[in-house]
Amino acid sequence: MFISEKEIEIRYAETDQMGIVYHANYLVWMEIGRTKLIEDLGYTYAQLEADGFLSPVTDLSIQYKAAMKYGQKATVRTWVESHGRLRTTYGYEILHEDGTISATAKSEHVVVRKGSFRPVSLKKIAPDWDAKYTEVKRCKD
Fold this sequence. Notes:
Layout: E1 4-9, H1 25-40, H2 45-50, E2 53-54, E3 57-64, E4 73-83, E5 87-95, E6 101-110, E7 112-113, H3 122-125, H4 127-136
Antiparallel strand pairs: 1-4, 2-7, 3-6, 4-5, 5-6
């Protein structure tokens, strides 16, 4: 299993009135982590879009464990949890600087054609990318 890591410096604007990171910012950090993972594997989401495809989120779950605050640094760990014919599930851990888990999450995605939103197999449009996901995924079939 391949795990990508991205450090995020927590900005004041990402916190709520209590000085705690607002929950929706974790979703942004997950996107940053997912983009980094894709780039670490040698691909770009921007190229997928340029080729006429999108990869929308179809399901998301997140479990908050320990609050993060302004001035801290978060590390987003991202991996391919599972990858099938149409769906890819990414796994995430968001960590405090000392390694304490702040949140864990999973997001499920399907590749679709930009114009029609019809699902398409990654294997059909990017066979090398599909093979890389199959190689690095956590859950082996």
